[in-house]
Amino acid sequence: MSNKGIIDIFINVESFRNIDLYYQGLYYIQIQVFQENNTQKNFAVPVHVNNSIEGVFTFHSILDPQIKYKNSSYLSKVFMIKYSDEIVKMHETIIFQIESYLYSNPDLTIEIELYFTDLGGDLSPESLSKFMINPSTSSNFSKVGSSTFKCVDWKFGLNQFCPIVFHDTYACVLYITIHTILLDYIFRTDSQELSDTSQISHSLFPLCGHYVQDENIERVFKDYIMNLANCCNKTRRLVKKILKNTNTLGQNGAIKHSLKPPITFDGELPISKCFTIRNKKKVTRLLLNEKTEVAERVALVRNELERVLKCFSGEMSKYLEEKYHDKVRNLSMEHIYREVQIGELNIVSETNHLQSRTARAYRKSLYSAKKDTLEAYNVRIFAPEKLAILFEEINIKSGELIDPWKAKWFCNTIISSEKHLFVLVHGYMGSGYDMKTLKDVLILYKPSLLVLISESNEKHTEGSIVDMGKRLANEIIAFIQSLPEHVTVSRISFIGHSLGGIIIRAALPSLIEYKRLMYAYISLASPHLGCAQFSNILVEAGLWVISKIRNSVCIQQLTLKDCLSPRHCFLYDLAKTSKLHFFEKVILVSSSQDSYVPFESARIEIGLECPDTFQLEMADFIATNVRQLHRINVDFPIKQGLISDLHGRAAHISLLDNQSFLNILIYRFADFLNAR
């Protein structure tokens, strides 16, 4: 005997945005929904697609959406992408249905896949016509991206905005909203036949004889009827809110009028007191009748949800998007341990070496308790075992910490001629492509940003850092001068990885004319005090070999061996003439798991065991007059035994490509992206 809930899953596919797709061509989205238990998958069945622009041919609607019943999947319309920053209005709602055990089955999984073809390199009108006539033979679509979402607490009503992000050479985002609604219950025998009242009563009251007790009635009423009513009321509140927010309400009065009052159960007495009988079968019939009445109301609300998604999908998406960003911001802040200090900057390290243990314990507690605040989450970012944990120390010379936040920052699509320029600089023997994921994340959350990925020092990182700084400065100046006349750079911020953070500092003397525009400086594991001391002998030996074989001036400068006296070395001189005070905010990000760059050097700190050194002088020079300094230690969930983990490379690279870390960083410093 099985008692299951019948649940409708609405996925409203609102829009698709090109962030940085490398290839022009045709794209479509495939979505599957299922529950997974061990090796078994229980697929939700796609039952209907609502498409508001069906049958209208444009380059954004080449083929209509369809359902593939063979693999229980939905395929979106086929659309062409030709331009950067291109947005495709999708306006499609796919409705899945699933039968699920309400209290024992696992989470719901939603798999979203991106497919692409360039029609063999021929995107001419003739080629498109052939494709439309016979799409199955004239194209060869390949899967180029995938994203997996887990839904928790979804069986009794879920309503959430979700950005589906694809990365690498197919950087783009699909905006969807997910809605679930419990419609009714179905009772079946083991042979999948519908049960009669006698069988249902035995299933609902398995430990009772011919008569039931008050607590048994209360339990069944709560588990079945109250949950059904609560789900109905939850969906009704959302529908009513969207209708209230819609300016075109007068044109759709029928939708408003058809909403019935919420389901309530009058009286303060326990529901069992409303029953004058205790016979198990008769009580079961009464409860089933009550359930049927509630299910009829649920069906009406479910239909209104479908109509609202068809008429007002944009309004629904905007409303839920703000709530999503608020939730993610709160969740991100929960993964940051913060300490604020007002007054003089402390440059002697007092770093807590128990932070790594704290991070592991925190992840374990999240995983065991499943305390996710998001009802639907991207497993690459929000799964407990994937979370990066941040330990932030904030130092402010005077005043108080201002920590603003507005969800609308990430929802604002207003185009302004004043632009905030972010300059991203790669590290030693790196390339601009190393910074692509970071760029994509910035553009994802703030499309109006100007982002320059520096390429001027590619294949030139063996030389002098002085020359690298000049090349970077010239590249920035040329970029700003090449902008259209109507575009004005109002702010400039820098993000440098490893050596890139030092190159940025070396470029600042050549950028004095832009001093008033400098806003934020962010270094990711940059050796500000040099690499004179390593925690990993393999890395130290490797750098020594490189400096000898390649005669690398850069390595000599970073290891403070470019002069006989450390106080005449390049990094010491760079510290004496430090320009970090140009910036309103300075953020030093590092990881104690990183053995490529000394931890204290990346934080501009000196260990307690050796405070009286020339590096203490360097740290003092750099920190002088810095108004607001953030030091962040990132703990990554790195798998033990990885080759890259043995020499500390995993954490060093994770600062550039770990989705959890980048997501938390963006939400933590969201105000930086919106500075004007």
Structure description:
This protein is an alpha/beta fold and 676 residues long. It folds into three domains: 191 residues, Immunoglobulin-like, CATH 2.60.40; 139 residues; 224 residues, Rossmann fold (3-Layer(aba) Sandwich), CATH 3.40.50. The chain has 21 helices and 21 strands. It is globular and about 95 Å long. The mean pLDDT is 87.
Short structural summary:
The chain is of the alpha/beta class. The chain folds into three domains: 191 residues, C2 domain (Immunoglobulin-like, Sandwich), CATH 2.60.40.150; 139 residues; 224 residues, 3-Layer(aba) Sandwich (Rossmann fold).
Which features characterize this protein?
Rossmann fold; DUF3657; 676 residues; alpha/beta; 21 strands; Lipase-like; 35% helix; Immunoglobulin-like; eight-stranded antiparallel beta sheet
Produce the secondary structure layout.
Layout: E1 2-21, E2 25-37, E3 40-43, E4 45-51, E5 66-68, E6 73-75, E7 79-81, E8 87-100, E9 108-117, H1 125-133, H2 135-138, E10 142-151, E11 158-166, E12 170-188, H3 197-204, H4 214-245, H5 253-257, H6 280-311, H7 313-334, E13 336-342, H8 355-369, E14 376-378, H9 379-382, E15 389-396, E16 418-425, H10 436-445, E17 450-453, H11 465-481, E18 488-497, H12 499-507, E19 518-524, H13 537-549, H14 553-558, H15 570-576, E20 585-590, H16 599-603, H17 614-623, E21 628-635, H18 643-646, H19 649-657, H20 659-668, H21 670-673
Helix pairs in contact: 3-6, 4-6, 7-20, 11-12, 15-17
